[in-house]
Amino acid sequence: MSMVRAVGRAVLWLLCGFAGSLAILMVTNSIIDLRGYPRIQSGGQVYTDSWDRGYVRAVGTWVFEDETKQAFPRQTTEIKCYRDEKECLSAQAEIVSDMLTVQAERFPITSWDNQSIVYVSRDPVCVSYTYTISRSTQRITGQRQPKPSSTAAACAPFEHRTFNLSLRDGFLVWQQLQAEDQRVISPIMYATLGIWWAFIVYRIFRSIRRPALSGAHTAL
């Protein structure tokens, strides 16, 4: 009879193990959701249908070509270029320290031909940006270069080297950021599950071993 009760206790501990595992998974998913951010819209493409009529539009998320970590990677940009006005308008929304910020800028166009558009930004004190829109590849790339004045103390936070950028599909960027968050949290989750199941196995072993020892003493 004691053995039957022991098996019953072992089964209860096993059920507790599954219930606890489910709770750990739910808490982990909740943490990921709390750390998560809104999805970034798809894009990364240049719309060139009106190129010859003097209008080009692009939507996407800026990333560094060499996979350098960005300070604020969760952002999306819409760019509209007008040949007659000789300028490109850029509107960007990004999340900075859990706060949504929006900014709009105007960039002068330095060249517009049948194959490419080049526009620049020289307003920042420490760096300058040159952007190129390719008609054949329907892509937009950028290059950030340090200015001669970048040796000033105010420019110390900026790396003194050239960075290449490209406008990519924001949804794919969002998926990559989510995967990075999961890689940070997953080891903690698996360690917690391991400790929990070690405790459950110990309790099951104790539940079965105790009546077995009692039976052995009785036989003696």
Produce a short descriptive summary.
This protein is of the alpha+beta class.
SSE arrangement:
Elements lengths: L1 H34 L9 E3 L7 E10 L10 E8 L4 E10 L2 E14 L3 E6 L5 E8 L4 E8 L16 E6 L1 H50 L1
Antiparallel strand pairs: 1-2, 2-3, 2-9, 3-4, 4-5, 5-6, 6-7, 7-8, 8-9
Helix pairs in contact: 1-2
Description:
The structure is a single chain. This protein is α+β, with helices and mostly antiparallel strands. It has two domains: 74 residues, no CATH class; 124 residues, Lipocalin (Beta Barrel), CATH 2.40.128. Helix content is 38%, strand content 33%. It contains two helices and nine strands, in the order H-E-E-E-E-E-E-E-E-E-H. An eight-stranded antiparallel barrel has the order 2-3-4-5-6-7-8-9. Helix 1 runs antiparallel to helix 2. The longest helix is centred in the C-terminal third of the chain and has 50 residues. The two termini are 18 Å apart. The C terminus is likely disordered.
Class inferred from helices and paired strands: alpha+beta
The biggest beta sheet reads: 8 strands, antiparallel, barrel
Supply Rg.
Answer: 29 Å
N-end to C-end Cα span: 18 Å
CATH topology of the largest domain: Lipocalin
How do the strands of the widest beta sheet line up side by side?
2-3-4-5-6-7-8-9
Architecture per CATH nomenclature, i.e. the level-2 architecture of the largest domain: Beta Barrel
Residues in β-strands, percent: 25-35%
Count of β-strands: 9
Low-confidence stretches: 216-220
How many distinct folded domains? 2
Number of helices: 2
The averaged pLDDT comes out at 82
- The top-level CATH class of the largest domain is Mainly Beta
Topology as H/E string? Answer: HEEEEEEEEEH
- What's the overall geometry? elongated
User: Helical content, roughly?
Assistant: 25-40%
